[in-house]
Amino acid sequence: MYKKILLGFFAFSLLVFTGAGCDFSFGDTEFEEDDFFTFDDDTEFSESDLAELEDQIAEINSYTDVEIDVPVSVTNGEEFTFTVTVTNSDSSAHSLRSIDVAYDFLDGVYVTDVTPEADLEYDVDAISQHIFEFNHEIAANSSVDVVFSATAVKTGDFGGDFDICIDGDASCLFNSIRTIVE
Questions:
Q1: How far apart are CA 65 and CA 89, in angstroms?
Q2: Number of alpha carbons in the 13 Å side-chain half-sphere of residue 69
Q3: Using CA atoms, how far apart are residues 138 and 147, in angstroms rounded to an integer?
Q4: What pLDDT is recorded for position 113?
Q5: Which stretches of the chain score pLDDT less than 50?
Q6: Which pTM was predicted?
Q7: 24 - beta bridge partners?
Q8: What radius of gyration, in Å, describes the C-alpha atoms of the chain?
Q9: What pLDDT shows up at residue 55?
């Protein structure tokens, strides 16, 4: 009898913990079980897909140089700028897709303007980053400067990921940024 009770409890727990047979909602969007547990061919990643992405990032690294000029320290309330220079040494043009900035940096620094202007800005909570999307062409053998105007809003040591994505959302060069607000 105990085995039947334990097996029944285990089966029920498995259904609850996996969400099997359940529908979910987020705001006005309804999701069904299959939305969470299955993927179509466009969303599956094989080892060869990941190897291809690694090769693409290595190629981008071979012709792209990134320099980040940010003050080591600023005073709380101070307005300042920091510049990202992206250099394309390839013989063909490429696109600056986005610059992704860690929430941990933005916790003490409020960005008031970006030049060239971002086409779109949005947060991605899953990776704790604010995305500045550009789709800005970088001509062959040239550079583009992206100037961020900002205000220091809180004292502390602020830093984190600062990723530069070239030609796509997943082909990013991973950098760090840090500023101390006194």
A1: 8
A2: 10
A3: 15
A4: 97
A5: 1-41
A6: 0.71
A7: 31
A8: 22
A9: 77
Among the listed residues 81, 86, 104, 95, the one whose alpha carbon sits nearest the alpha carbon of residue 156: 104
C-alpha count within 13 angstroms, C-beta hemisphere, residue 181: 21
Q: What is the pLDDT of residue 21?
A: 36
Residue 162: C-alpha distances to residues 67, 100, 173, 174 (Å): 11, 6, 9, 6
Ramachandran angles phi, psi of 87, nearest 5°: -110, 130
Tell me, what's the pLDDT at 25? 36
Is residue 118 within 8 A of residue 133, CB to CB? The reply is yes
- What's the N-to-C CA distance of the chain in angstroms? 68
Which pLDDT score is estimated for 42? 54
Rounded CA-CA distance 174/45 in Å is: 21
**Helices and strands counted in the chain (H then E):** 4, 12
Q: Cα separation of 110 and 60, whole Å?
A: 30
Kind and range of the H or E run holding 106: helix 103-106
C-alpha 163/C-alpha 165 separation (Å) is 6
pLDDT at site 5: 33
